[in-house]
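Recall the central idea of this unit: under ordinary conditions, the amino acid sequence of a chain determines the structure it adopts. In this exercise we apply that idea directly, starting from the sequence alone.
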Amino acid sequence: MYFEVKHISKSFSGVVALDDVSLSFEKAEIHALVGENGAGKSTLIKIIGGKYQPDTGDIILMGKKVRMSGPHRAVELGISIVYQEYNLLPNLTVVENIVLGNEPAGKNGRINWEHAKTFCLGLMERLHVAIDLNRYVSDLGAAEAKIVEILKALASRVEIIIMDEPTAALPEREVDALFQLIRTLKKSGVTVIYISHRLNEVFSLADRVSVLKDGKYIGTYQITNITQDDLVRWMVGREIKDVFPVRREVFNNPVVLSLRDIEDGKMLKKVSFDLHRGEILAIGGMTGNGQREMIRLLFGASPMKRGAIFFQGEKVTIHTPFDALRRGMGFIPDDRRNEGLAVTQSVRKNLALPSLDLRQTAGLVHEKEEKEVVEKMISTLDITVSSISTAVSHLSGGNQQRVVIAKWLPLHPRVLLFHEPTLGVDVGAKMGLYHLMRQFADEGVSILMVTSDMIELLRIPDRILVFYDGTVSGEFIRSDATEESIMAAASGQGRKIPGIGTMP
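Accordingly, the structure predicted from this sequence is:
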């Protein structure tokens, strides 16, 4: 076997992160590594990458035991990690970032930039990509920056690349370019270890997949021999039927929110639909066709040029998020770290902020009441946190998302707007969020969600709208929707919509 980890165990302060894990990787394969948060994936790749030392176990490369004394040693042995977080210097050019630490020396000890550029062009030719070497990284798109990170890894002549959630920050339209690059890496002989919570990516890319759960190795499977339901069951330890909530009939319920011929002057074109009380209505389609603009317009974060919004039968004007809040709307954005949370602040401050006016007199906050409200929100949404004073940045992705949702509860929202509700959340936490959304709906809250996840689109909502070119191009009851019909509508080939988004 090309690369192996054998009987790896690792504990932190008595907490077992990895328990006797053994895995093997073949030369020139795409090998996915999956599991819930806390399964041990991050610990394992940090051991492989030399950041952590295992308590017990061995790392074997081409039949020989090796010791990863540090990240530099891992690179010397041909192993590099491309982390989820941005890891480039934005004020340097592409070529400067790629050769950083491996600069070719010229005369008088100066860097030979002509050789550096020739070397980088050779790397790009090998991978069939083209990026202007003189551009500053700060000017690159998200996918281009990720490709530069991969080129930087290859500049050290690595043969094993570990990618940790590489598409987490990428728009959907840029994911294909990254996938093409990963497949080219495989063809050129590189082994790719691919970590992702997005199972559709795993099944699209991987040759094999290994599952970790609670620090233990569950198994390795040929991707062509298993289904997504199989993988979910192994990851969460429960049957797939327990993952997705049951759809309800809500179309006879009163209409809470109505949109008529909404336009923003840029993307949206005569968008009309209704949202019923207690309904989960999902908006899907290829990213970039108006879904983001629609949900942000509803919360007052983007302007509306023409059309009308009716809330419980009354025509309303929503110019700002404050207008939306007054109408009983809460918003869970797709970028929770920058738009949904104050990540350096405590869980308490994040949960208390939107409803602060309810617990203060003459500018003084009622501390005891705030503490009681915060603790109730934590209990209600089952947020795992050691203390309400813990910085929210220390929470898992799933618990961070629950904080974003929970902060609206004291305002008793009538409508919750979810934009990519499970982005960057592991499978187990996703299951909890799905059932939480259904619980809200059962209690009469209306939910509008935008998602690019086909599994979510087909299995979570009561009704589905598909956007194409800035307007609604298809409408389905969940039980009637198929991946083929959704994709047809998303490409502008969907059926004509009866009515205006109120299909019974």
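Confidence is low (pLDDT under 50) at residues 496-500.
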